[in-house]
Structures are given as C-alpha cells and as structure tokens.
Amino acid sequence: MKNFELFLGGSGIPIFYIKIGLGFMFSFLITFFSIPTIVKISRRKNLMDEPGIRSSHLREIPNLGGIAIFYSIGICASIFAYELFDLYKFLFASLIILLYVGVMDDIVVMRAYKKLVAQIVVSSLVVIGSDIRIRSLFGIFGVYELEYFVSVIFSIVTFIILINAFNLIDGIDGLAGGYSVICSALFGISYYRLGEYNYPLVVLSVIIIGTVLAFLYYNLSNYRNRKIFMGDTGSMLLGFLLAFTSICFIDIFIDKKLVDVPRYHLQSAPVVAVAILILPIVDTLNVIVVRLYNKKSPFDADKNHIHHKLLKLNLTHRRSTFYIILYYLMIVGVAYYLRHIDVNLLLLVIISLGFFGAYLPDLLYRLRNNKN
Questions:
Q1: Using CA atoms, how far apart are residues 248 and 46, in angstroms rounded to an integer?
Q2: 3 state SS of 260
Q3: What is the dihedral of CA 62, 68, 70, 74, to 10 degrees?
Q4: 96 falls in which pLDDT band (50, 70, 90)?
Q5: What is the DSSP string of 177-214?
Q6: Residue 140, SS3?
C-alpha cells in the first residue's frame, strides 16, 4: 500500500484529500452503475418486495439494493481506508456474513432467530476479535469504566439493537438512506476535527455517503422501472457500520495511555453518539413499548413507526423523510450546544426530545381530526 500512496501523492495534493475525493467518486459511481443491472435481474427473476402489513408501497419493487451498497463499500473501503481492515481484522468478515444473511432474507425470508444468531456472531467477531467495544459510560447513571465481560456483553447488545433499529426505520422512501448520509456526515466531520489519527474513519464515512447518495437516486425515483429498495441487506450493513463508527467515536475519548494515540476529552461523548443515532433508537423503543402495552409480541409487524404516523397525516414519502430528518437533526444540534452540561441531564434532554418527536405526529393527527 505504500507504493499506492506514493503514486497518489505524486500530484502534490495531500494523500488524505485524494482518498476523500476518489473514495467518494468511486463509491458513488460503482453503486450508480451497478443498481440498474440489479434491477434488471430482479425483475427478470421476480426477486421483488411484495407489499405487506408494514409496507408503505402498493406495487412490487426490487429490494436487492443492499448488494450494490456492499459492493461499493467493500471495494472502496478496502482500497482507500485499508488501515481499518489492518487494525480491525474481523471487520470485513463481519460485512461478508451480513451480506449473505441479508440477501438470503431478502430472497427467501429467513426466520428471525436465524438472523439473530448471525447478528450475534457478527457482533461478537467485532467486539471480541477486533476489540471494538464500549469501555466506559462516562458517568451515565454513575457508571464509568466497565468490566471487560460487562463491556463485551453491552457492546454486542448495542450492535444487535442498532442493526435491527436501522432495519425498522427502512419503511418509506429515502428515510434509512437519508438518515445514514446524515449520520455518516456528522461522524465524519467529528473524526476530521479530532485529527489525523482518525482519518481512515473519515474516509469510510465519505465512502458510505457516496454509496448511499447513489442509491437514493434510484430509491427516490418517480420511474417504476428504476426504483429499488435497499432491503435487509442494505439496512443491516448500514446499521452495523454506523454502530461501528459510533462506538469508535465514543472510544476516542477514552485515554488508553498509548504513546502514538492522541488524548481527547468529552464527558458527553456517549450522549452525543446517542443523539446522532436518536431516530432508530427512539423509533425502536417506541414500537416495542406500544406493542407490549397492547399485549402483543415485540416482534409483531404493525404501523406504529414514526414514518407511518406521518403518512397518516397524508404526507408524501419525501416530505415525511424530510421532516423526520430535520427534526432529529435539530436534536443533534441541541446535543452539541449543550455538550458540556451534566451528562445525565443531557441524556434526559435528548431522550425526551426524541420521544416528543415520536408522538408529535399523533398529537397533530388528533388536533386535525378535532377541527374536522
């Protein structure tokens, strides 16, 4: 790879910025040109997503867009952010497993327990094998450093929750993809500001943005012969990668007392990460609470998600996606502005705003009906 970097550095432009530019360009182009082929094969082989109880669409749509997302990230990240795969040996293997499980589920629909087993395996590989874990809660509920076993279990559970949470918000056009772009941009900017040591994570974030933007071009298309969903393959991959980047973000602020590793301090780092990922976290918690309150299984499909509530207000998919992302982006702004207050108070503020956003559509729906 040194020869590759010497080749890139021949222009006189810093290698990091070349990687950023090429990573974005190639990730976008690979996804952009591979999706039409996937759409064509999906239609020819009838590999389509059929409308169901949770569906917000009325026609069959190809749902293998996640293959293009993996294809692009797998190629570009291993070239332009190869340091991550050197440092975290089990990262690429985890992506491969998620690809296999996601494609199987998108084509033949796997049983929930089989997907859960695969997610446990993937999470364990990264947490135990690559040592990507939550080591401290920074004083949340009075808890600081976690014992190794507790840290491992808590981190594995966090990965599994976020993987499935992103799967659950993928219910209307543009939401999961658009939110992934926002999250990646926020983490990427944060990593960039934290210095050169974190540049590979910046490049990974940019690659995810390029890939998903190309996917959104087709996902938001008004032409039926172009439209595609990311499916479980895409949502699980993005959920996993954003869980990975969020835990890496938290880990940066833990002083490992290593010579070559810079030292940073932000007491509210875990809460800032929660704020960035607040939509899937709150949406998942909300639907579980509602299902338990109605004495239903937490795994039963329904239309209690935030995006379903906005559709009840007769908003289009695009408007619903825009309003949801705008509101939860505001929460990130609040978290950043208040980042130096007490960590428990900040967590309470962020979670409260998150749940307020989840129930705001219900309030608007009732007010509108009362007027009528």
A1: 40
A2: coil
A3: 170
A4: very high
A5: HHHHHHHHHHHHHHHHHT-GGGHHHHHHHHHHHHHHHH
A6: strand
Say how far apart CA 306 and CA 361 lie, in whole Å. Answer: 8
CA angle, 187 then 159 then 284, to 5° = 90
Contact between 62 and 39 (Cβ < 8 Å) = yes
Instruction: Tell which residue, 350, 366, 57, 353, has the closest CA to residue 231.
Output: 57
Q: How far apart are CA 274 and CA 268, in angstroms?
A: 10
pTM of the model: 0.92
In eight-state DSSP terms, residue 127 is I
> Could you give the CA distance from residue 247 to residue 158 in angstroms, rounded to a whole number?
9
Helix/strand/coil for 64: coil
Residue type, 297: S
Report d(CA 169, CA 242) in Å as an integer.
Answer: 14
Q: Are 294 and 288 in contact (CB under 8 A)?
A: no
Give the span between the Cα atoms of 10 and 133, in whole angstroms. Answer: 38
Q: Any residues with CB less than 8 A from the CB of 361 and at least 6 apart, and which? A: 306, 309, 310, 312, 313
Instruction: Please give the pLDDT value at position 77.
Output: 95
CA distance 218 to 221: 5
Residue (of 60, 34, 66) closest to 46 by Cα position: 60
Residues 155/165, Cβ–Cβ less than 8 Å: no
Tokens of 219: 């996902």
**Residue 109 in contact with residue 51, Cβ under 8 Å?**
no
- Element housing 35 (H / E): helix 15-44
Cβ burial of 185 (10 Å; 0-12, 13-18, 19+) is middle
Cα(172)–Cα(169) distance, rounded to whole angstroms? 8
Q: Reduced to 3 states, what is the DSSP secondary structure of residue 172?
A: coil
- 142-165 pLDDT, tens digit each: 999 999 999 999 999 999 999 999
Whole-number Å distance between alpha carbons of 123 and 159: 6
pLDDT computed for residue 357 by the predictor: 92
Determine if residue 231 is left, alpha or beta; phi over 0 gives left, psi from -120 to 50 gives alpha, anything else beta: left
The angle formed by the CA atoms of residues 149, 251 and 93, to the nearest 5 degrees, is 70
* Longest pairwise C-alpha distance within the chain: 70
